[in-house]
Design a protein that fits this description.
By secondary structure, this protein is α+β, with helices and mostly antiparallel strands. The protein is 32% helix and 30% strand.
């Protein structure tokens, strides 16, 4: 079977060391999806370096086609086109695509939203979508902040979460056994998503 084109991009443009360390960052779950724009096919990931406690922003543009794919990373590496952070981000995005969790055909959503698709709302699924650090942070946050569930009916849950002086909105909708997660969030989306999921599980919103 031919390699998926995102993975092929890593092997075509990354050195052996970049590939090895990119895989390591990905395996350690030191990477998360920050913003996903299905309208123009752009993705921002936050990637933690494997050697230093530094986070880099990786931007993947036009990811839906190998011909137009374009990558940027905030790190100073310039020995090859793909750095270890870009490699980690591509492994991560490819995995989400393989599992059909990126709803990139949905073109009718506003760009300020992030839409994710998952077969189940559980801790395993959310661990896929956030970094190990964020997961730990969410556990701590959950001890003091709880989302307000505004409504829960017809397989749709609407909630808001007050955090750091801002109110964030979250919508979960279940259709044909697939749960769409629509996040209208400025920042810290994975953290709130996780907190929200815990709350939904607690109230058995999807049972
Ligand atoms: Zn980099």
């Amino acid at each position: 079977m031919a390699l998926p084109y995102l993975v092929k991009h890593i092997y075509s443009y990354g050195t052996e060391e970049v590939i090895r360390r990119g895989k390591r960052i990905y395996a350690l779950k030191n990477i998360e999806l920050v913003k996903f724009d299905p309208m123009i096919g752009n993705i921002h990931c936050r990637v933690k370096d494997d050697g230093y406690s530094t986070y880099y922003k990786v931007t993947i543009e036009n990811f839906t086609s190998a011909a137009t794919l374009s990558l940027r990373c905030g790190c100073p590496y310039n020995l090859s086109e793909v750095c270890r952070h870009k490699a980690a981000a591509l492994f991560f995005i490819q995995d989400l695509m393989d599992k059909n969790q990126l709803e990139y055909q949905a073109a009718s959503y506003k760009t300020t939203h992030t839409l994710l698709r998952t077969k189940a709302i559980d801790l395993k699924s959310i661990k896929m979508l956030c970094s190990a650090d964020t997961f730990d942070q969410a556990e701590q946050t959950l001890k003091t902040i709880r989302p307000h569930i505004l409504s829960s009916e017809n397989e749709k849950v609407v909630a808001e979460l007050d955090m750091n002086g801002k109110t964030h909105h979250l919508i979960f909708k279940k259709t044909k056994n697939v749960i769409l997660i629509l996040l209208v969030i400025v920042c810290q989306r994975q953290l709130m998503l996780y907190v929200f999921i815990k709350q939904c599980c607690y109230y058995n919103c999807f049972n």
